[in-house]
Amino acid sequence: MKTKIFNCAKGSAEMREKLKTGKKWKSALADHKKGFRLLKMIHQEDSSILPGYLLDVGLQLAEIYGSLFLSAGLIDALLLGTFREALFWAVALIGMEFVLRTGRLWMQNWFRKVTTRLWLVFYVWLRKKVFSLDYETMEQEKVIDRIASLEQTADMYGSLGVVLYWYRNMLMAALRMAASAVLVGSLCLKAPVRGKGMFGVLALPAVSFPLFGAALAGMFWASFRLSGIFAKERRQYFESNTGMEQRLEYLVEQVFMNYKAGKVVRIFGMEEMLRQNSAKETDKMLAHYDGMLWVGCRENMGNLSVSGLFTLFSYLFAAVKAATGAVTVGAFTKYAGALTQFGSACADLVLGNVKIREICTYMTEFLAFLDLESRHAAGSIPVEKRVDGEYEIAFEHVSFSYPGSKEPVLRDVNCKIDMKRKLAVVGRNGAGKTTFIKLLCRLYEPTQGRITLNGVDIRKYDEEQYRSLFSVVFQDFRLFAFPVWENVVAGQERDNTKIREALRQAGAKELVDGMPKGVDTLLYKDMGDGMEISGGEAQKLALARALYKDAPIVILDEPTAALDPLAEAEVYERFDRMVEGKTSIYISHRMSSCRFCDDILVFDKGRVAERGSHETLLAKEGLYAKLWHAQAQYYA
Q: 378, 392, 425, 563: which has the highest count of C-beta atoms within 10 A?
């Protein structure tokens, strides 16, 4: 019974070990599948990169094994005293070295350019994917954090260039092993012509093969063992460093490099507190990097030890063959070099496999992000280009909840937007006004119900064409550290006459005319020595951008929230004159924007509580009247 139990336990342990081994192989194959996908993407980006790396591998192999063969011929010729033949071998060796070294120097310069380009390509691919995703997905905090983590990891551990580098090393190692295996096999087959005793026995082919195989197996086992141990330690360091990098990056970019924060720092005397926080995070990061470097140092020492022992064996093995007359002294250098190359190639192959798997571990997240699908349906119907700007837009039983939230922001909204009229959307903060506009612009899609354009669900239209109907100035509008004209034109074709007219209508012409380079003046200092502008000035440029697009529907989504009610009313009145003949929508929690509007939507708790003209709603004495009278003291 005990024997059966023991055998059962033994069988179970063996089965677990087999399953564990199988999982390791599957995991390794999965990692390399990702690696090959990255190589394919690199080749599609630039078809010259992979052939260039293959050419470099060929040059290296030619240099290594050409030197072995030519050196062997030179040594044998010198020992035999055939100096004319020795001169031939010497000239051939020098000529080969010159040609191949020149070629490799040129390749190294090319590699530097490729590496820089691949570093940039990673960010280009990432940004292309970001812009291809719908706004609803991109607004999620977890997605934003995911992108930041991908960028930090790439900066820290390398990305596409590192993948290519290690696959090149693995290919180089595999070819070195193949070439060296042929030479090592021929060495093992060489039979001794003199000598007896132990050396004579060791030089016999029947002994040479198993002896070399045992040494090779020992080296492989030691290399795999070391790589597994240190890979686990490096993975632990990798998984624990993201939070530290984010905190340090925040301090550097958002605090120390943000000159706007300087006012607060000085007023409240925060210098010492910030220095202490920086010192604390820096110490943590340095300790983390010290640990990583120590792991790498120990790994290098272990690999050098294994490689050194195998190199020692290689020279002794080749020396035994030379001592028993199996090979010449010149051939001894060739075979000893081949044995050394075989051993180092085996170690490089193991190391390359470990490195590729490490890289693919964090590149998995990058590939998963590239595979992320948009939440929005991809419509294809073209939007009719109407000269008269007459479109019919309707909300039909529209409800919306933000991802992860069960509480709806909009509830069963039903309304039509009349074209070429002025519509005000008002209500308390959080009533759903901005969400209403984002749904209208198809930045979000309804959780329930639908929005139609000329009776067709807007999800069926081409997204870019549908958005071309709208020109919006959001509450959190952004200008970029580009020249003024690029901020106004916003990706459209430049028309200087149209730019000047948009600036004039927005009240920004005098501002821009007073700038050093006019419309070519760079804004802000992020991209160079640009010009800083105030919030009010930025608002005027944002209005000019909305006007330049010349879309049939123009929307102001509380861009004046920071202004007092009277100043806001002035902005709305000026903008009202600008968009004469267009459909205009004004979003505000203040009532001053409603005086000159034809129609007013009053939102309350996600619903359309009231609708009508200013006079009609005041007469009803409902929510609108209540809000109006509460604010009347500010703009009466």
A: 425
pLDDT band at 362 (very low <50, low <70, confident <90, very high): confident
Contact 235, 308 (CB under 8 A): no
Whole-model pTM: value is 0.67
CB atoms within 10 A of CB 386: 12
The phi and psi torsions of 31 (rounded to 5 degrees) equal: -65, -45
The answer to whether residues 423 and 416 touch, using CB atoms and an 8 Å cutoff, is no
Nearest 10 degrees: CA dihedral of 519, 521, 525, 528? 130
**pLDDT > 90 fraction of the chain, expressed in percent and rounded:** 11
Quick one: CA dihedral 254, 257, 262, 265, positive or negative? positive
Q: How far apart are CA 467 and CA 376, in angstroms?
A: 14
* pLDDT computed for residue 398 by the predictor: 94
Provide the b/e sequence for 189-225 (b: ≥16 CB within 10 Å). ebebeebeeeebebbbeeebeebbeebbeebbebbee
Sheet of 470-473, strands arranged across: 470-473, 553-557, 583-588, 422-427, 599-604, 607-612
* 7 vs 583: CA distance, rounded Å: 84
Pairing state of beta strands 448-453 and 456-457? antiparallel
What angle do helix axes 141-157 and 242-249 make, rounded to 10 degrees? 100
Question: What are the backbone angles phi and psi of residue 541, rounded to the nearest 5°?
Answer: -65, -35
Dihedral angle over CA of 143, 145, 147, 153, nearest 10:
-140
**Own/partner pairs, 413-416, CB within 8 angstroms, 24+ separation:** 413/449, 413/606, 413/607, 413/608, 414/608, 415/601, 415/608, 415/611, 416/392
